[in-house]
Amino acid sequence: MTHPSPPDTVDVTVQRAFAVPAERVFDAWLTPRLLGQWMFGPDVREEKLLRLDVDPRVGGRFSMLVERGGERIDHVGEYLVIDRPHRLSFTWTIAGEADQDGSRVDIAITPTSTGCELRLVHTLPRAWADYAGRTQQGWSTMLDALHAVF
C-alpha cells in the first residue's frame, strides 16, 4: 500500500475581527506609516525598524528591514494580488535565507455588520514546517498590534 506523500507546504491560518471598515484594514497593509505602527518596531517586539520600502502594485516589491538582537533582518516580497479592500497576496521571505520558495501570504477581508473580518493564510514550504507555530504566533502578535492601531 502506498502512502500519499506529504504536501510540499504547510498552511498557518490566523483570523481577527475589526470594528472598522474593510478599506481601513486593507490600507494598513500597504501604507508605510501604518505598517511601521503594527507590523514591526518597538511597539510589536524588541526591535528597531530601520527601513520600510513599499511599492504597492501587482509585481511591486517591499522590503522591511529591522534590527533584532543585534542582527539585521530584511523581510522582502512581491505583491501578487491587490484587490482593495477584499484580497491581498504576496510572497514573504527573509533576504539571504535559502529554501523559502513557496512562502506566500494570502489575506481575505470580509465586511461584517460591525466592521470586517480578516483571514490570513501563510503558506510555508515544507522545509519550514518547524516554524509554523512561531509564524502563527508572529502573525497573531502583529494582528493584535494592528487591532490596537484602530
From TrEMBL:
Domain of life (superkingdom): Bacteria
TM regions (residue ranges): none
Domain annotation Activator of Hsp90 ATPase homologue 1/2-like C-terminal: ranges: 20-149
Gene3D superfamilies linked: 3.30.530.20
Coiled-coil intervals: none
Any matching Pfam family: AHSA1
Family label: Belongs to the AHA1 family.
Name under which the protein is recorded: ATPase
Native source species: Pseudoxanthomonas japonensis
Lineage start: Bacteria, Pseudomonadati, Pseudomonadota, Gammaproteobacteria, Lysobacterales
